[in-house]
Amino acid sequence: NEQILLAERPKGMPTEQTFTFEKVDMPSINEGEVLVKTLYLSVDPYMRGRMNDTKSYVPPFQLNEVISGGIVGKVVESKADSFQEGEIVTGYLEWKRYSKASAKHLQKVDPNLAPISTALGVLGMPGLTAYFGLLDIGQPKEGETVVVSGAAGAVGTIVGQIAKIKGARVVGIAGSQEKIDYLKNELGFDAVINYKEDDVKQAVKDACPNGVDVYFDNVGGEISDAVTSQLNKFARIPLCGQIALYNLEKADIGPRVQRQLLINSALMKGFIVGDYAEQFPEGIKQLGEWVQQGRIKYSENIVEGFENVPSAFLGLFKGENLGKQLVKVADQ
Ligand code: NDP
To answer: Where is the Enoyl reductase (ER) domain (predicted)?
Structure first.
């Protein structure tokens, strides 16, 4: 067996040295526990925050201890009545090839519903983040303009498509031509902005002739300054992520958004997907229906091999992923 530990608290951008691999024994399980073989492992931007020793909505990872995150795996041994050998499960597990888990911390994945990897993407945490953040806070109405940053990622791709389903005009902001083409041609976004090439403020003005009614913010920083300069009266901003700031060594001081909120009577609300935990079944059901009807498409960027978990994680900050970034650790 093998596991990945946090080797250092990164200053600025993490590197391969942030992680160490360690060979360990196979865990033995007790009554009520399950041994899980990791099949897919999720790397997520929020994990960067957990590498700092600061207060947040989840406790920090501990130095020289195993990192944990979303995993889809197969039950290889069970001492819990509720799980049988061979079943596919998901949960927050340690970054190990094989890990043990208490049965109450695992959920079953139905392999007949959709590919099992989707439990970490469109039918899992990122899909639910898009669903509840957009619909509960953003509340897009037909004909309104919705702008989403980080548009080609796990959350952003789903936000844009739900906004289209609700009849909004959708503008996506992303960082490469390939992503821009995908959003426009495959997902049907109405307009797209390449923040690495375009003058973002001018491009937002051009792409949103009627102003911005909903801004789903995945990135923060200058991109968000540009979008919030174009808000309409009563605009809503679901504040989902700030990836442009996660690796900064000094606080970022930009144009402050408060005046824009004030003069537009706008709402900006931060949220954590877990706030909606009680409504997850409803969210998964609706997302599942949309996926089955072909109204929501999803893309996965799958890196093969446990040894490539660190580089897949680092790739999130270089924009290497189109859609959900996953690591395939083993075959079923
Ligand atoms: P993504 O799949 O969107 O991957 C990250 C993407 O962010 C990259 O592909 C890259 O795309 C973009 N990016 C990286 N660095 C920068 C930068 N400096 N400026 C602008 N864009 C950048 O990740 P997720 O969909 O999983 O997460 C998206 C956001 O939502 C993150 O901020 C995350 O923390 C947040 N989040 C919040 C949750 C909540 O509960 N509130 C839950 C889940 C996610 P590009 O090529 O376009 O630069």
So the answer is: 15-327
